[in-house]
Amino acid sequence: MKKLPLVILVVFALLLAGVQYRLWFGEGGIAEVNRLRAQIAEQQAENERLLERNRVIEAEVMELKQGMETVEERARHELGMVREGETLYLLME
Predict the structure, then answer these.
(1) By the 8 A CB rule, do 29 and 22 touch?
(2) Is the pLDDT of residue 1 over 70?
(3) Domain that holds residue 65
(4) Does residue 84 sit within a domain?
(5) Is the pLDDT of residue 60 over 70?
(6) How confident is the model at residue 49 (pLDDT cuts 50, 70, 90)?
(7) Which residues, 6+ apart, have CB-to-CB distance to 75 below 8 Å?
(8) How many domains in the chain?
(9) What is the per-residue pLDDT across 20-34, written as a single tens digit (0 to 9) for each?
């Protein structure tokens, strides 16, 4: 009669050990979750760095676009410049 509770205790201990092993070392276990969290943090930092880089590049592009339009507009109005193939008509008042 005493052997049955001992066998049950051993079986439960083995089951508990198996569950604990999976929890700590198995697929989806704590070690993997911690590794994935660290990987996510690294990726988020990289994304922020790239986002800031994209903002800087976008600002440079906008500045260049607006800058060239401004330069061209001034050259046309103040200096009377035209593009190749265009004809300039000056009206005298």
Answers:
(1) yes
(2) no
(3) 41-78
(4) no
(5) yes
(6) very high
(7) 81
(8) 1
(9) 888 777 787 888 889
Q: Please list, residue by residue across 62-83, b when 16 or more beta carbons sit within 10 angstroms of its beta carbon and e when fewer do.
A: eeeeeeeeeeeeeeeeeeeeee
Q: How many CB atoms lie within 10 A of CB 42?
A: 10
Distance CA 62, CA 69 (A): 11
∠ Cα 43 49 50 (to 5°): 90
Pairwise CA distance, residues 30 & 39, whole Å: 14
Query: What value, to the nearest 5°, has the Cα angle with vertex 66 and ends 61 and 70?
Result: 150
Tokens coding 50: 């790239």
> Residue holding tokens 């035209």?
82
H/E run at residue 56: helix 30-79
The pTM assigned to this predicted structure is 0.50
Domain assignment present for residue 27? The answer is: no
